[in-house]
Each structure stands twice: as C-alpha cells, then as structure tokens.
Amino acid sequence: MKSHVVGSLLRPPALLAAREHQVSAERLRELENEAVDAAIALQEAAGIDVITDGEQRRGVYFDSLAGVLDGITPVLPGQSEVLDKMVGADAWHTDESATELADLEAKLLITGRLARRESLALQEFEYASQRAKHPLKVTLPSPSSIALVFWSDEHSTAAYRDVSEAMDHVAELLREEISALAARGCRYVQVDAPDLTFPINEAKFFYEAAGLDRDRFLAKSVELLNSVMTEPGVTFSTHVCRGNNQGQWHTSGGYGAIAAQVFPRLDNADLVFLEYDDERSGGFEPLAEVPDDKVVVLGLISTKTDVVESRADVERRIEEAARFHPLEKLAISPQCGFASAMQGNPLSEATQRAKLELVGEIGRSLAS
C-alpha cells in the first residue's frame, strides 16, 4: 500500500515570523528553501512514498495559481459573494472554540481577464525536484474553486459574461500550467477540489453564485476537472476536501450525497483522495461508486487534532474500506494538509511528525 501526503506541512516559526515582519525577498527565499529542505527530509524519513514540498512558499493552498494571475486584484471595499459567505459565522466549524477567519478576507477579486504572469508551482517543483529522492507531487486548485472564490457580480462581469465562463478560462490556464510542469519533468499533479463537497451540506450559496443548480454545478465541476487532467505522462489525483483552515471545516456528512454524481465520472483522475478522519465523514459505502481501476487514498489520519491515532484502529478501518473497494487499490494519507492556510492547524510539529510516521508505517506494513 502506497503512502501519501495531501499537500501542506506546518510552516517553521522562523518562516512565519519572516512573513509577518516582511523581511527582504532574498532573506524570505532563504528561509523558504530551508523550510522546503526540512519538509522533504521529514516526509522521506517517515517513509512517505509520494511527497510534496510542503507548500512552504504559499500563504494559502491556492496561491500556486491565484497568487500569480493577472486579473485578480485588491478591491476595497470588496469581497466575492462566495467568500463573504465562507467566512460567515455559520460556514466554518470546529470541535473547539472558533478561531479568527479574518485572514480569508483578502479582498481580492477578478477584475480583468485572467492571465498567467509567472508560475509559482514551477518554481516550487524545480527547487524541490533537485532535492527529493522520492516521487514529487505538485498541488493545484480546481477551476471551480478559484473562479468562485474570486468572483464578484459587481467587479468581474466586465471581464467575463458570467462565472461559468471564468471557470472555463481558469481551466485553460491550468492546462497551460500543467503542460509547463510536465515539460520540466513533473510526473505527479494533484488538483484540489473543495468545491465538490459543498453540495453535501447543501451550501447553496456556492453553486448558486455560479448561476447553476446543484446537479449542474457538480456536473460542470467534474467536467472541468477532467479537462485539466489530460497531460500525457502525468499521474493525476484529485482531493475531495471538506474544508481546512486552522483546524476548522466547512462540510459534514457522508460522501453518499455526491458519490454517484462524482466518483464514476472522474475519468482522468488516477487517484482520488478522500477524507475519512472522523464520524462526520460518514461510512465507506460510497467507495463502491469509485471504479475499481482507480486508487482511493484514504485520509484516515487527522491533521486537525493534536492526538495521534491508534495504528490498530486505522488498520481496522482499512479492512472496512476494503469491503467496498479492492484492497490493492487502496492507499493511505493524512486527511488533508497540515497547513492549508499559512497559520497551520492546531497541532505541534512533534505530532505532525508522529502522524506522518504512522502513515508511512501502515503503508509499509500493508504492502508486505
């Protein structure tokens, strides 16, 4: 059984402090390089089969694209209709008291035609690939999530007829990005799709902002995912995320609510990463909807808590999952990134290490 990570790792305190105090670009790059080196060493020491650079150069997981596009600019006052609801009191949940979500309120909106200015993902890959001994994965955001989070009916319609047209253009830009990565030797790309789980919660604001009903939104999002996962010679995965910001989430409920509409239609995804870290994820029955030729990566290790899971409990849950999808087509990972937002989830670096080691140990034990 292969072991994976989803994407991000906790940022070192020195790197967080440097970003807060706005050090020179040269000094920031030095600290980022050190953080990437440490992230790679940590994953490889834990025995993770497919690794990332820990997303150490990003402020938030989608910076790899949104942070380097012309056409997304600050607007004050201003905020996308979707993001306005996403940072609302009822959108995010936690087992502890709520944490501050103001950092999501970036006030960035689509104000013009989008264009790739540079490639943060390519910079990430070129540095990390020179140091990684294990296969290296690059993570990118889905077309639907980017277009919706930065869409504004007031500010964006001068550039695009509607958000659906913007989603199509983001998909085109992602294909260009993936082609550039492949040309430099990248062979693993993950497309993160938190948008696919909003219909589980019936968070209508997300798809209504796109002018679509629930079913048409799911069909459109899956169509766009397939359209970007086409580069020859690249292994593609998608992560069906339930929200991850400083220990909080936006979606509860089993995958059964979307499984029939999504899982059989992910034609171009070789691996599907699913979150199964606690009871709010539901049972494994929806795995029966995933075609048998695809690998399901079970996110059984939580990145949201400071408690390390029991190996026996995790292996028991893998046995349960194998009732609905072939064991030889199962893999293991943490449930999400450890720091999808730069501030990170509420756990220590020691716990992060222990959880990664657990992922590696279980992967090795079930491969033998």
Automatic annotation (TrEMBL):
It holds the Pfam family Meth_synt_2. Gene3D superfamilies: 3.20.20.210. InterPro entries: Met_Synth_C/arc (IPR002629), UROD/MetE-like_sf (IPR038071). Residues 17-342 form the Cobalamin-independent methionine synthase MetE C-terminal/archaeal domain. This is Cobalamin-independent methionine synthase II family protein.
